[in-house]
Amino acid sequence: MARHVVGLASAVASGERLVAEVAGRKVVIFNLGGEFFGLFNRCPHQGGDLCLGRTTGLVEAGSEPGEYSYTRRGEILRCPWHGWEFDIRTGKSRAEPGRIRAKTYEVEVKRGAELFDGPYQAENVQVKVEQDYIVVEV
Ligand code: FES
Prior knowledge:
The chain has a domain at 3-51 and 86-116 and 125-137: Rieske Iron-sulfur Protein. The longest helix is centred in the last third of the chain and has 5 residues, at 112-116. 24% of the residues are buried. It has one helix spanning 112-116, and strands at residues 3-8, 17-22, 25-32, 35-40, 54-61, 68-78, 85-87, 104-111, 132-137. By secondary structure, the chain is mainly beta. β5 and β6 form a beta hairpin. The protein contains one helix and nine strands. Bound molecules: FE2/S2 (inorganic) cluster. Residues 43, 45-48, 79, 81-82, 84 line the site of FE2/S2 (inorganic) cluster.
């Protein structure tokens, strides 16, 4: 697997997404409260563009009749074509999590210095990269 730098982490605010072309594939990268997750931009049902899907949360029953809570706001992605829903963190389908899932990619945030520091330093010149970058492993 190769690592690909796709952009600045600061360019994707919490709750937002970034669509990146990574090794010929479209990957949708989501920022969920500072954690980044990547999904292949192709729905496993019939190929809908997941990057165009709306995000939602879960309505979960409470312990008493009529009690419920809304949890995981923004962590469930609904495909724009037929409404299948996927957990952004795992890619698993909400309807059949054991059988259907959107392809996921490992995403991490690296300090610029971790990515670009190394043998490529000019003699007597201090090079620093301060910002964080989103890195996708494909
Ligand atoms: S293509 Fe995504 S739900 Fe049908």
